[in-house]
Design goal:
InterPro entries: Dpy-19/Dpy-19-like
Family: Belongs to the dpy-19 family.
Strand order of the largest sheet: 2-1-3-5-4
Distance between the termini: 79 Å
Membrane topology: Multi-pass membrane protein
Strand content: under 5%
Structural class: mainly alpha
Subcellular location: Membrane
Keywords: Glycosyltransferase, Membrane, Transferase, Transmembrane, Transmembrane helix
Shape: globular
């Protein structure tokens, strides 16, 4: 009898009947596989409960006021949750959808289609589900929302577990993957304090898609190929629907497929199928988002069209000696890239698309390929999340014994991949395509994580899979780990229990006071101007109209945000008044934490970015570019507090505490029509 560890687990994609007919099943194998599935669900639930407990312990969420709960949805999280709240408060589902399609609260003096502009179908779906299910009497809407997100973490862990099981042939690898994911919680997820972020909705579906791809590429899979194709499509569609950065993540995946095709690890059918799954997922989202032009003008669609077109007309690419094939591949790649940029340029010209140009400005500035004074690019560059991966991340990963087996597995698999790439016969036996895909997946997304820290959450989860595959796929790694003295006596259980036992409480009295004042002392149709992060909370907690918000994927909104932020620049009161009135603002909220910011270094404070964009020298000691000049005006956010006549004639202070100053904008001054265009 075969060992139950390797009898059926390596065929978990197949149904029980198929395995039985193939003669691969015994009662031991059935029990062993059932235990494996049970462990996967158990680890998923453990992760879900762990995250929910950390969230409760950190905020004392069950005992704070409703306004405090809503304030805890910081920055863009509050904006997204406000649409869930808005749908529940609507008289009917139809009216709620109509309000989202014809929204005039999110951006003052504008009516926008939120379902087209933003990825908020998950909020719509949850609100409809909450209305239909008989749970209103014993489960508050906010708990229904956050528990759904935490449940997706269980799905995430199960998907990683199954991928490791498929690769190694043992569910023990999946168990190790789940344990590593939980132990490295700081670097694998941030869901407990950024619940509504789009990545927390989308990454579980990306992990499921990788599981489906891994199963699809298994050499022995035949019967369930069509099922896997549909599963890949559904998971790709859900991933794209829930995150606005889907096109950039899929572009990296398309490059992985292209690389595997170039070294002949995938068949023509597999390559075409994987590309078409991506295209189908994106186009389905394009339809649901009311023909969002940002998707049609995406770089990934241009790349796939170019790759398939050139592949069709360039035959004989994989023939000849190694040097000949390498030369052909380089020429082929250059042609594909040239055609990609040509198609993308023409598509954006035809669609008049400028919604994503800030992302490309950020990339150019990050790698010193373009100007660094651009305001939008600088907003990203100065945030730690968009910087390079800190070295302490690797220290933490090494502390949980994840980094060492990962690096060793990576080195070994990379060497095998290079050797297999030079072979012609027996390659699929020596190096499976599903393993090759996962190797390139972790390499490509690892490079992305090192370049941009925020993207590490795509990499670290899959990192657990690769390391577990290395450990459980062969006994070699045990010897290597012992050689490196990695079998330390570190105990992780006390650390987890310490985190679970640490009790805190949400405390932000100044923001609570501000939200209470806005709700009770200002008209319901009042328009508020201020920082993107604060305004998202104002919309959620008070329902007031905003001038700008954190969903930055719109050129006109980015320009309006830059103009509204002039309240922190060196501008005259007349100029600021004209800007705010042109945006339709009735009130402006000034934050001391921004006006007197010390969190960022000089040159990265918001007031510095505005000074640079306006051509003015920056505050404080330090060098300035020779073309910068002193501003003829003092800084607005500081000087308005002096209550001089030039300011009180245009602005009336209506609220203040230690953190915020709110001013009502007088209507007397005449507003230039083109003020927001300058």
């Amino acid at each position: 009898m075969k060992s139950p560890s390797f009898c059926c687990p390596k065929n978990i994609c197949k149904t029980l009947i198929l395995c039985y007919r193939a003669g691969d099943w015994s009662w031991g194998a059935i029990i062993w596989t059932s235990v494996g599935w049970s462990v996967s669900v158990g680890l998923g639930l453990l992760c879900c409960i762990y995250m929910a407990t950390l969230h409760e312990n950190d905020l004392w969420f069950s005992n704070i006021k409703e306004v405090e709960r809503e304030i805890s949805f910081r920055t863009e999280c509050g904006l997204y949750y406000s649409y869930f709240k808005q749908m529940l408060q609507a008289p009917s589902i139809q009216e709620g959808l109509s309000d989202l399609i014809h929204d005039n609260l999110t951006e003052s003096r504008r009516t926008i289609n939120l379902l087209q502009r933003m990825n908020i179908y998950q909020e719509v779906f949850l609100s409809v589900l909450y209305r239909l299910l008989p749970i209103q009497s014993y489960l508050e809407p906010v708990y229904f929302y956050i528990y759904t997100v935490f449940s997706l973490q269980a799905v995430y862990v199960i998907a990683l577990y199954l991928t490791a099981w498929l690769l190694s042939g043992s569910w023990l690898a999946g168990t190790l993957t789940g344990i590593w994911y939980i132990l490295n919680r700081v670097d694998t997820t941030r869901v407990e304090f950024t619940i509504s972020l789009r990545e927390n909705w989308s990454l579980p579906f990306l992990a499921l898609q990788v599981t489906a791809i891994t199963c699809y590429l298994r050499p022995q899979l035949t019967t369930l190929q069509q099922v896997m194709v549909w599963l890949m499509y559904v998971t790709t569609f859900c991933f794209c629907l829930t995150w606005q950065f889907n096109q950039f993540i899929l572009l990296v995946q398309a490059l992985i497929i292209y690389t595997l095709d170039g070294v002949d690890f995938l068949t023509t059918t597999q390559v075409t199928t994987l590309y078409l799954v991506q295209v189908s997922g994106l186009l389905s989202v394009w339809l649901l988002q009311f023909c969002n032009s940002m998707i049609l003008g995406s770089l990934v669609l241009s790349f796939i069209v170019a790759a398939l077109f050139i592949r069709h007309f360039q035959s004989g690419l994989k023939t000849g000696s190694l040097l000949v094939r390498l030369g052909k591949l380089l020429l082929h790649s250059a042609t594909v890239l040239l055609l990609t940029f040509t198609i993308n340029y023409l598509a954006k010209k035809a669609l008049q698309l400028r919604s994503d140009e800030h992302i490309f400005k950020f990339i150019k500035s990050k790698f010193a390929l373009g100007p660094t004074r651009d305001f939008d690019a600088s907003l990203y560059l100065c945030e730690e999340a968009f910087g390079v991966l800190p070295l302490d991340t690797l220290e933490r990963l090494a502390g949980t014994l994840l980094l060492y087996p990962y690096i060793l597995t990576l080195l070994l698999l990379s060497g095998l991949l290079v050797m297999a790439g030079q072979e012609i016969k027996g390659r699929l036996v020596a190096f499976r395509p599903d393993v090759a895909y996962n190797l390139l997946h972790t390499l490509f997304y690892g490079l992305l994580a090192f370049s941009t820290m925020r993207m590490k959450y795509i990499w670290t989860g899959h990192m657990c899979v690769v390391a577990a595959y290395g450990v459980c796929g062969t006994e070699l790694w045990t010897l290597l780990l012992n050689t490196l003295h990695c079998n330390s006596k570190v105990l992780f259980w006390p650390k987890l229990m310490e985190e679970l036992s640490e009790l805190r409480e949400f405390y932000d009295p100044d923001t609570v006071e501000l939200m209470t004042w806005i709700s009770t002392k200002t008209p319901k149709q009042a328009v508020f101007a201020g920082s993107m992060q604060l305004l998202a909370g104002i919309k959620l907690c008070t329902g007031r109209v905003l001038t700008n918000h954190p969903h930055y994927e719109d050129k006109d909104l980015r320009e309006r945000t830059r103009q509204v932020y002039q309240v922190y620049a060196r501008r005259s009161p007349e100029e600021v008044h004209a800007i705010l009135r042109a945006a339709g603002a009735d009130y402006v909220v000034l934050e001391n934490s921004i006006c007197y910011e010390r969190r960022h270094r000089r040159g990265c404070r918001l007031r510095d970015l505005l000074d640079l964009a306006n051509g003015h020298i920056m505050d404080g000691p330090g060098e300035n570019d020779p073309d910068l000049v002193p501003s003829p005006h003092p800084r607005f956010c500081e000087t308005i507090k002096t209550d001089t006549a030039a300011y009180t004639s245009l602005f009336t202070r209506t609220f203040q505490n230690k953190t915020f100053h709110v001013y009502r904008i007088r209507n007397e001054a005449k507003v230039p029509v083109n003020i927001l265009e300058n």
